[in-house]
C-alpha cells in the first residue's frame, strides 16, 4: 500500500496530511514541506478514510472543541523520538509542560542535555497539532520554538485556553 496525501485549509494556513496502511503518518504546514517525506505525484488522499477522519478532527479542533483522536497515528522516527512523541500525546488539552519535564518523564535522571534532545525530537514531530508539540514551552514559562512559527503556537495555545501565564 502506498502513501496517501491531501491538503486542508485551516485558520493558520494550508496543511498537508499523509497516511499509509490506514494510519496518519504526517501533518504539517505547507511551508515545512522540506521536512516531509516524499509525497505521491498527486494528492490522492481525498476519500482515504483516515485522512477524512483527520480532516474532520481538524475542523472540530479549530472550532474550539477538544476532539478525541480515534484514528491510528504512525509517526516514524528513531525509538527515542517515538518515545518523545508518545509523551507529547499525554499532555492534556489546555495544559502545557516544559522540555525539561518531558525529559525527566522519560528518564528520572533527565539532564539539561536531555531537555535539548527532547527539544530536537519535538521539533521533528511529523504529526503536528494532533501530537501536541505546541504544548511544550520553556522551563521559565516562555513560548519557545515551534516549527510552524511562534505566532501559530500562540494561536493554538490561546485556542486551548492555556496561554495565561506565558512569556514571549
Short description:
With 168 residues, this protein is an alpha+beta fold.
Write out key terms for the chains shown.
168 residues, alpha+beta, Arc Repressor Mutant, subunit A, 2 domains, 3-stranded antiparallel sheet, two-stranded parallel ribbon, 5 helices, 5 strands, 16% strand, globular
Global geometry: globular
H-E string? EEEHHEHHEH
**How many β-strands, per DSSP?**
5
Percent range for helical residues?
Answer: 25-40%
Question: Can you summarize the main beta sheet?
Answer: 3 strands, antiparallel
Poorly predicted runs are: none
Q: What would you report as the Rg, rounded to the nearest angstrom?
A: 16 Å
In CATH terms, the superfamily of the largest domain is Winged helix-like DNA-binding domain superfamily/Winged helix DNA-binding domain
Main sheet strand line-up: 1-2-3
Mean pLDDT: 86
Number of domains: 2
- The CATH topology name of the largest domain reads Arc Repressor Mutant, subunit A
Q: Helical segment tally?
A: 5
Classify the beta-strand content into a percent band. 15-25%
Distance between the termini: 44 Å
Q: So, CATH architecture of the largest domain?
A: Orthogonal Bundle
The helix-and-strand class reads alpha+beta
What is the CATH first-level class name of the largest domain? Mainly Alpha
Amino acid at each position: 500500500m502506498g502513501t496517501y496525501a491531501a491538503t486542508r485549509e485551516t485558520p493558520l494556513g494550508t496543511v498537508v496530511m499523509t497516511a499509509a496502511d490506514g494510519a496518519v503518518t504526517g501533518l504539517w504546514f505547507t511551508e515545512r514541506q522540506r521536512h516531509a517525506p516524499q509525497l505521491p505525484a498527486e494528492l490522492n488522499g481525498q476519500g482515504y478514510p483516515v485522512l477524512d477522519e483527520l480532516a474532520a478532527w481538524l475542523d472540530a479542533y479549530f472550532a474550539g472543541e477538544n476532539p478525541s483522536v480515534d484514528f491510528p497515528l504512525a509517526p516514524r522516527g528513531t525509538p527515542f523520538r517515538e518515545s518523545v512523541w508518545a509523551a507529547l500525546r499525554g499532555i492534556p488539552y489546555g495544559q502545557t509542560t516544559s522540555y525539561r519535564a518531558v525529559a525527566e518523564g522519560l528518564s528520572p535522571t533527565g539532564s539539561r542535555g536531555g531537555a535539548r534532545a527532547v527539544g530536537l525530537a519535538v521539533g521533528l514531530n511529523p504529526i503536528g497539532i494532533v501530537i501536541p508539540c505546541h504544548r511544550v514551552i520553556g522551563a521559565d514559562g516562555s513560548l519557545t520554538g515551534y516549527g510552524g512559527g511562534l505566532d501559530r503556537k500562540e494561536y493554538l495555545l490561546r485556542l486551548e485556553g492555556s496561554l495565561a501565564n506565558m512569556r514571549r
